[in-house]
Amino acid sequence: MAPILARRGAAGGSARAGTVGTVDIPPSSPARPGAPLPAAAIDAAVRALDVNDGRRSIGPDEALALRVVKVAEECGEASAALIGLRGQNPRKGLSSEQHLVDELLDVALSALVAAASVTDDWADRFAAHVTARTSRLIAAVDGGAPGDAALGGAASGAGAAAD
């Protein structure tokens, strides 16, 4: 199986600011026109979970803790899907790329539900967060990540561009 970046066309070629392969992607532009963030659905999920928590006498602090733990649980499932995709647990057989993507989307959904449980302005904050982090990532790749001498970066700090 070809590496994901190679299949997506992002590997190779010369990198320019805001460019993946040969396609310019400004950090503020939507990745998928016509595919808005389903904020209303996430807000509805929070309301449904709040009702469910009330029925089970789960207080707000415990509810938030459980929603954060749910993110960790979903991360584990995404990890298991990757292990299955790579065939690293022969006892369980292979999984598919679709299964991995589904689990990764479950991680994202769980994280957004947890964030929406904390603040009403989560969608605006998420949009600003994505723009800021992707801008830093693109800039780091274009100019070399900190600590990456091969790309011209100066200081060390693995993963700093995507923090």
Q: Kindly report the oligomeric state of this protein.
A: single chain
Strand percentage lies at under 5%
Cα separation of the termini: 29 Å
Total helices: the number is: 5
Poorly predicted parts: 1-23, 151-161
Précis, in short:
Helices cover 56% and strands 2% of the residues.
Could you describe the 3D structure shown?
With 163 residues, the protein is mainly alpha-helical. A hairpin with a 2-residue loop joins strand 1 (19-20) and strand 2 (23-24). The protein has helices at residues 4-8, 39-55, 60-85, 97-118, 122-143; strands at 19-20, 23-24. The chain has 5 helices and 2 strands, in the order αββαααα. Helix 2 (39-55) packs across helix 4 (97-118) and helix 3 (60-85) packs antiparallel against helix 4 (97-118).
